[in-house]
Amino acid sequence: MRNAILILLLGAAALSLWARRAEDPAHETIVLTGSSTMAPLMAAIGKRFEESHPGVRVDVHTGGSSRGIADVREAVATIGMVSRALEPSESDLFAVPIAHDGVCLIVHRDNPVRALEREQIRAIYTGRIERWSAVGGRDAPITVVHKSAAHSTLRVFLHHFGLRNEQVQPDVVVGDNEQAIKTVAGNPDAIGYVSIGTASHDAAHGVPIRLLPLAGIEPTVENVRTGRYPLRRPLLLVTRGRPEGAAKALVELARSSRCTDLVRRHGFVPLAP
Amino acid sequence: MGERWLVAFASVAAALVALAALWLVGTLLVHGLPELSWTLLTAAPLDAGRAGGIGPIIVATLLIVGVAMASAVPLALGTAVLISELTPPGSRLADAVRRCVDALAAVPSIVFGLFGNALLCKALGLGFSILSGGLTLACMVLPILTRATLLGLRSVPLADRLGAAALGLSRTSTLLHVVLPAARRALVVGLVLGIGRALSETAALIFTSGYVDRMPRSVFDSGRALSVHILDLSLNVPGGTERAYAASVVLLGLLLAINACASLLAHRWLGRDTVGLGAIRP
């Protein structure tokens, strides 16, 4: 017992010694919080930033877009990540888009259906239409592919079509974009929705899927960039007032063509062509 | 006739439970094992976790759980000793403390996360740090540890305490040399449950210990826990699913290893099955 107490005390002492905060004035830390959709991308951009800016650390945290806005207002974070357009009540913040997130509906390449109306898509996803023949396709049951809760594409999709998650009647629930694409590519009667970046890349590389237009507008990376395609949202970096110093440099790097590869790898649409 | 049905039902139930466990572990191993390598365990994550390893994340996880247990175990032990040993049965004080512990046990983990974020990160200025995360987890595992310790202390027969008192032992000596060693199995169970809860916690840590996957330099740095990493890979990183499985296998392995160590240490420290006079130092 005595040994145990001794070990515990020694451990605590060692921990507290090691825990003494390394006060290093040369180190500047930029703290980002907000959208969990953007966090992995910004963490990757942050690493690239740290490579070219020794002495600056980029700490990225998540918690959702609203948290990012609250943290920037309270000055807990330097930069907030917001994966939606700012609301009028949030106009006190300075926002800079770094990329766009577009979502499109996909079907199998052999599916004769070329386009679907907004109401048809709503009916398919709520289970009111159950066969392709009702929307001009083959006489076959529709396999509705849905995402598991909290996926960013799911939120964009539901928001655009004015649906609540509990209204959706899915046949298959998948995790990420790749899984959704695999499911649709392997089932001629399936419909799903995925990130445009991933879908157009896969379709161009021979995966048997077709991207459905929305309101007559083709879901291309170009149409997402210009804003013609409606099912999209901006990925914003927000600050209190214009960013300065290292934060400014970080925002500029994130927007620039030097990060286009990272933006694409995370399935988003970069600002620059 | 009735007994045969009972046996059949019990066997089927047990088989289903075993099947569920095997299925879960099997799926993890099938998807996760091919990704497992020495590099994965030691290297830093690259490309949002899709390449590189999870070395810093394992270190951060161990630190968070270490901070949590180091602060929760003494508190839980003290609380349980107060309720069970130092207050008379039916005491109002003991009752009030027990109610508080129960209330703490009923709080959802996300609430602990927001509480930790408001108090530790902001009001106390600890920021997103391993210390904030560990202390938040300490609040969460406190009821589990206290409950288990209390059950253990209660299971020690009153006769043992009376016998110790008759021999002229002080309360402290009785506690240290008679009651605690006799209750050690329950203490180990509590420890294992607490560590399990702490290791698997996600919601409370996103808001407190944060998301940074760099190797932590001290407990004042932010560190990403394994569970947070798994959540991020499976929800927010396209193509991160296989790595999420690999990280889950590591988490499972870590859990088993820590539990084995905990029970080994606890048995070694408190491992006297019979209490002889030689163990008692007045």
Question: Any overview of this molecule?
Answer:
The complex is a heterodimer of chains A (273) and B (282). Chain A is an alpha/beta fold. Chain A has two domains: 2-100 and 235-270, Periplasmic binding protein-like II (D-Maltodextrin-Binding Protein, domain 2); 102-226, D-Maltodextrin-Binding Protein, domain 2 (3-Layer(aba) Sandwich), CATH 3.40.190.10. In chain A, 37% of the residues lie in helices and 22% in strands. Chain A contains ten helices and ten strands. Chain A has helices at residues 2-19, 39-52, 65-73, 118-125, 152-161, 177-185, 196-204, 221-226, 245-255, 260-265; strands spanning 28-34, 56-60, 79-82, 94-108, 143-147, 172-174, 190-195, 209-212, 232-239, 269-270. In chain A, strands 1, 2, 3, 4, 5, 6, 7, 8, 9 and 10 form a ten-stranded mixed beta sheet that branches. The longest helix of chain A has 18 residues, at 2-19. Chain A starts with a helix and ends with a strand. Chain B is an all-alpha fold and 282 residues long. Chain B has one domain (14-279): MetI-like (MetI-like fold), CATH 1.10.3720.10. Helix content of chain B is 72%, strand content 1%. Chain B is built from twelve helices and two strands. Chain B has helices at residues 2-32, 38-42, 55-86, 92-105, 109-123, 130-154, 158-166, 171-182, 184-200, 203-206, 226-235, 241-269; strands at residues 45-46, 51-52. Chain B has a two-stranded antiparallel ribbon. In chain B, helix 4 (92-105) packs across helix 6 (130-154) and helix 11 packs antiparallel against helix 12. The longest helix of chain B is centred in the first third of the chain and has 32 residues, at 55-86. Chain B is globular and about 65 Å long. The termini of chain B are far apart. Chain A binds chain B through residues 1, 3-4, 8, 11-12, 15, 18-22, 31, 36-37, 39-41, 43-44, 57, 59-63, 74, 76, 150-152, 175-179, 195, 198, 265-267, and chain B through 47-49, 66-67, 70, 121-122, 127-128, 131, 176-177, 180, 206-207, 210-214, 217-220, 222, 232, 234-241, 269-270.
